[in-house]
Amino acid sequence: MEIPGETKAKGDKVALTRRQREIFDYISDFVKENGYSPSLEEIAGNFGLASVATVHKHVHHLVEKGFLRKAWNRSRSLEPIPEESPADLVTLPLVGTVAAGSPIEAIEDNESITVPEEMAGRPGESFVLRVRGDSMIDDQIRNGDMVVVERREQARNGETVVALIDGSDATLKRFYRSGRQVKLVPANETMEPIVVPAESVTIQGVVRGLLRTY
After folding, report:
1. pTM
2. Which of 13, 62, 150, 174 could be cross-linked to 68 through a Cys-Cys bond (beta carbons 3.0 to 4.6 Å apart)?
């Protein structure tokens, strides 16, 4: 299964985290209402953030991702860049962390991620997981990346899946079944595959796309 090194939204815009989306929407609404952009202090105050440095970091990412323009030599210079097709974006839940190494327990988060609609698969049947570990590095899935997963209980040999082992430990690997055994294979030649009885493995979903933030 071919997985790109980075997936961007329509118009070459990288997907936003929930907080980045909230700040972008606030700046856009502020500019429409006042004709100029809010200061970093006003953004921090609106979201109850104690540190202006945190706001600066979010604004920096929004500029890098192509959602804002900023003139660095003057204040109140943030300019939202209109999104070409908002309808082509959907919001998916970030439901936890999955291991690209040894299996780890799934962790519930309370966050959401905006992704391109074509990456999401069937409506209401996809979610996002943050990747921990480097066992899928040869498929360009790196530690800290996020994968978009479509819920499926079955997978074809060679697909990259999120699998539960013995009902609790979630792992991200290539899936291969042969008879009554399942082999979960890392994309890292320095690591060994996990071989277990088929009844010990539950497929949670198949990877449809990859998100990376900088």
Report:
1. 0.59
2. 62
**Which of 49, 80, 111 represents a domain boundary (last residue)?**
80
- What's 67's domain CATH number? 1.10.10.10
CA angle 185, 114, 78 (to 5 degrees): 130
Beta bridge partners of 116: 89
Kindly report, residue by residue over 37-95, the tens digit of the pLDDT: 999 999 999 999 988 999 989 998 898 888 888 765 456 778 888 665 444 778 888 88
43 phi, psi to nearest 5 deg: -65, -45
Domain housing 188: 87-211
From the list 28, 65, 173, 200, the catalytic residue is 173
Residue type, 54: T
Kindly name the residue from 28, 37, 135, 200 that is annotated as catalytic. Answer: 135
57 as an active site residue: the answer is: no
- Helix, strand or coil for residue 30? helix
28 is a catalytic site residue: no
